Amino acid sequence: MGWEVTRLTGAADELHGRAVDFGRRSATVCSVTEEAVVLGSTQRNLPGVRRRSGGGAVWLTPHDPLWVDVVVPRGDALWDDDVGRAFWWLGDVWVEALAAVGIDDAAVHRGGLCVTRWSRHVCFGGLGSGEVVVADGRKVVGLSQRRTRDGALFQCAVYGVWDPAPVVAHLGLPDEASAELGEAAVGVGLARLPQLEGAFLDALRRR
């Protein structure tokens, strides 16, 4: 089964609110037109755009991060009934893509959820199954998942520059959050993002 690849640009609420076809494999590269904070489905009473997948908040700008939505229908060869294990193959694709742009020390986290002081607030503050880290343990690819009876939507983010200050300020977290979150993740460099997009889509098509 081939992949339908599309690119969409718009406001964050429009992109997260769009209809999703769970009946076919697809990859959608999304770009926002203005800065926005996107909240996970369980984050209540906070200002920002809400997505229907779980996890903490993600800060979006028109150029950073690289955001790709991947859909796998139920019953597809890539489908897995185990919610955590369902991420693993996608993490492997990102590791392959990162290696293609010169980041050779990335690995998929196949353990359980790793929580930190700030992980329930900020996506890149913790580590979940299938997410990708570099050799020093910092997260480089963030993943979230929305499942329906028809399929799964995986939402992926990779920062060119990891700067937690804007999302920390937006959420009203204390000052020490920026320093601690700064050590939890790492960007790949803005210049790499276009190359990484192409490498990811190439690796995805081989699945």
The coarse silhouette is: globular
Let me know the largest β-sheet. 7 strands, mixed
Derived from helix and strand composition plus strand pairing, the structural class reads alpha+beta
CATH topology: BirA Bifunctional Protein, domain 2
When the domains are counted, the total is 1
Q: Quick one: CATH superfamily?
A: Bira Bifunctional Protein, Domain 2
Known CATH architecture: 2-Layer Sandwich
Which helices and strands occur, and which strands form pairs?
Blueprint: E1 4-10, H1 12-17, E2 26-32, E3 36-39, E4 49-50, E5 58-60, E6 66-73, H2 88-100, E7 107-108, E8 132-133, E9 139-147, E10 151-158, H3 165-171, H4 176-182, H5 193-205
Parallel strand pairs: 1-2, 3-4
Antiparallel strand pairs: 2-6, 3-5, 6-10, 7-8, 8-9, 9-10
Helix pairs in contact: 2-5
Give a written overview of the molecule:
The protein is of the alpha+beta class and 207 residues long. Helix 2 packs across helix 5 (193-205). The strands form 2 sheets. A 7-stranded mixed beta sheet has the order 1-2-6-10-9-8-7. The model has no long low-confidence stretch (mean pLDDT 96). It has 5 helices and 10 strands, in the order βαβββββαββββααα. The chain has a single domain, classed as BirA Bifunctional Protein, domain 2 (2-Layer Sandwich). A hairpin with a 3-residue loop joins strand 9 and strand 10 (151-158).
